[in-house]
Design a protein that fits this description.
This protein is an alpha+beta fold and 191 residues long. The protein has five helices and seven strands; from the N terminus they run E-E-H-E-H-E-H-H-E-H-E-E. A hairpin with a 6-residue loop joins strand 6 and strand 7. It starts with 5 loop residues before the first strand and ends with a strand.
Length: 191
């Protein structure tokens, strides 16, 4: 694979919140991505209804940040599942964080490590996030993109989350992005 050129994503079109910088996992507050993925996301944003834009938490993720994330997820999941044997805990971590330990080299373009995956949501013009039912990096079954599609008798807030996830999914799918079904916020561009 040839060397991938990463460029900074600016806040002109998007709302930016570099979460992993705020968590202390990344040394840079810049959010970088592969040029073709950023262009595709800009086109996708035009498909959103007037008054909405994408809020991006993460795109390119260096291996050091991936390792910090894996370590954090391990701790959180160990607390959530104290009786889980090591093999099951590793499977849970890999469901939300990828291979443990993170590989040195990644060949696929549609990954965070190559600047082709976005962790994002929809926000209004003031930067306020639409309600999606969970926060970013939620480590529960509720994080699955279709979670609210499978539930009968939703509350009003759950119906709101379902509607907003549908908006995000419809917009990005129409633009050619692929979702990681365990995380409503994770969308990839492979071209």
């Amino acid at each position: 694979m040839k060397k991938i050129k990463l460029v900074e994503i600016t806040g002109k079109k998007f709302v930016l919140e570099p979460r992993y910088y705020f968590f202390g996992w990344s040394k840079s507050s810049k959010i970088l991505g592969r040029q073709s993925a950023i262009v595709a996301l800009s086109k996708a944003e035009k498909l959103l209804p007037a008054g909405y834009k994408f809020k991006i938490w993460d795109c390119f993720r260096p291996r050091e940040v991936q390792i910090a994330m894996v370590d954090s997820f391990k701790k959180r999941l160990r607390v959530m599942h104290p009786a889980a044997p090591p093999k099951q805990l590793k499977q849970l971590v890999e469901r939300y964080a990828g291979k443990v330990p993170p590989p040195l080299k990644i060949e696929r373009l549609d990954t965070h490590r190559n600047g082709g995956s976005f962790d994002l949501t929809v926000a209004d013009d003031e930067g306020r996030e639409l309600y999606m039912g969970t926060d970013h990096d939620d480590l529960t079954p509720k994080a699955a993109t279709d979670y609210f599609e499978k539930i009968k008798g939703l509350t009003g807030l759950e119906r709101e989350a379902k509607k907003n996830r549908r908006l995000l999914a419809k917009t990005l799918t129409q633009a050619g992005f692929i979702n990681y079904k365990e995380e409503w916020w994770h969308w990839s561009w492979a071209k």
